[in-house]
Design a protein that fits this description.
With about 190 residues, the protein is mainly alpha-helical. Helices cover about 75% and strands about 0% of the residues. It has helices spanning about 5-20, 30-35, 40-45, 50-75, 80-100, 105-115, 120-140, 145-170, 175-190.
Amino acid sequence: MPRKTDARASAIATAERLFRIQGYTATGLTQILKESGAPKGSFYFHFPRGKAQLAEEAIDHYVARRMAMVRSISANTTGDALNFVQQIFSAFAAEMVASDFQYGCLMQNLANELPALDAELTKRVARGFVDSTEIVAEHLRGCGFTPARASSTAAALVAAVEGARTIARLERTPAIFAALADVSVRGWAAPEK
């Protein structure tokens, strides 16, 4: 059982993991409490609005980690759009393999379920996509892409990653990420002429 100080973080981590594997609707509060080891009273102390508030914090945690990963790749590939794009695909492929193809994108899973359930959570998920897409666009602008091309390429990259995760989960192979990296070599992330 987690210490009192760990109950909040454990509940957030457990919710994030379960939402990534099985989605929001299929994840019950009882399962989150059981798997996190958080006492029910402690849970409501930390999350007085219940599961929706927990989902908000899980989204924030997930988005912060995702943005940190993309920023780290950006810092390691300054001025090199192709290497940046290839490392993005490689990082997401590695994450899929490490999770034994269990983890989808938390934001994608919630986006598929939430519009009908909770407008605030939907806005938070949308903001996560906007913020992470902007980091990609910023890197591409630093590689000499025009603002319009940087924005459209960043949006395409994020959409490709999300679709690739779904395909990788279904096929249980990271091959789709290698295919996307190959496409980027042939022009997607190539310099403008």
